[in-house]
């Protein structure tokens, strides 16, 4: 299977909190570990790498922060320490009613045909769950444990 355009997973959701709070949730390990992975070697900082851990699944990912624009954008290289890294970009759009529209794009997935499609489907589902968990936690203080209970 040959693609005419680069395949990209794109997931978007409105979170009813101010942009600074939503952005911080994805940068700050004290918050994001209540939403997505269970531990991190540190906060996201431009030009630095951190490792995220999903201990329940004996999994981790080295994340290299390629760009970090306060309250606007996070751009990382996912699985940066492997032969097949890919890119994740979060964009945070503040709305006038103190809400934030979050967009996540996963691109640069290596491979061919079915393997790429499988990764895109998994990524789309995974990031949809992460955004839903972020919405529940930030808006209502509820930890859904969606990722922990996924498999």
Q: Write down the domain tally.
A: 1
Distance between the terminal alpha carbons, to the nearest Å? 29 Å
| Helical stretch tally | 3
Q: What is the string of helix and strand elements?
A: EHHEEEEEEH
Q: Are there runs of 5+ residues with pLDDT below 50, and where?
A: none
The biggest beta sheet reads:
7 strands, antiparallel
Shape designation: globular
Q: Structural class given helices, strands, pairing? A: alpha+beta
What is the residue-averaged pLDDT? Answer: 94
Oligomer: single chain
Task: Bin the helical content.
Answer: 25-40%
Which CATH architecture? 2-Layer Sandwich
* Largest sheet strand order: 1-7-6-5-4-3-2
CATH topology term: Alpha-D-Glucose-1,6-Bisphosphate, Chain A, domain 4
Question: Can you give a write-up of this model?
Answer:
The protein is of the alpha+beta class and 151 residues long. The chain has a single domain (9-140), classed as 2-Layer Sandwich (Alpha-D-Glucose-1,6-Bisphosphate, Chain A, domain 4). The protein contains three helices and seven strands. Strands 1-7-6-5-4-3-2 form a seven-stranded antiparallel β-sheet, with helices on one face. A hairpin with a 4-residue loop joins β3 and β4 (59-69). The radius of gyration is 15 Å and the shape is globular. The two termini are 29 Å apart. The model has no long low-confidence stretch (mean pLDDT 94).
């Amino acid at each position: 299977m040959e693609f005419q355009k680069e395949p990209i997973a794109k997931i978007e959701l409105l979170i009813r909190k101010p942009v600074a709070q939503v952005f911080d949730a994805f940068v700050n390990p004290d918050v994001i570990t209540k939403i997505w992975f269970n531990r991190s070697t540190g906060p996201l900082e431009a030009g630095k790498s951190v490792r995220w851990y999903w201990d329940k699944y004996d999994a981790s990912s080295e994340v290299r922060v390629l760009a970090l624009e306060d309250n606007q954008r996070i751009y990382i290289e996912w699985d940066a320490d492997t032969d097949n890294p890919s890119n994740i970009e979060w964009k945070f759009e503040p709305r006038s009613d103190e809400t934030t529209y979050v967009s996540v794009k996963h691109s640069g997935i290596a491979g061919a045909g079915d393997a790429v499609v499988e990764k895109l489907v998994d990524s789309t589902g995974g990031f949809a769950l992460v955004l839903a968990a972020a919405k529940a936690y930030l808006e209502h203080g509820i930890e859904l444990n969606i990722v922990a209970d996924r498999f």
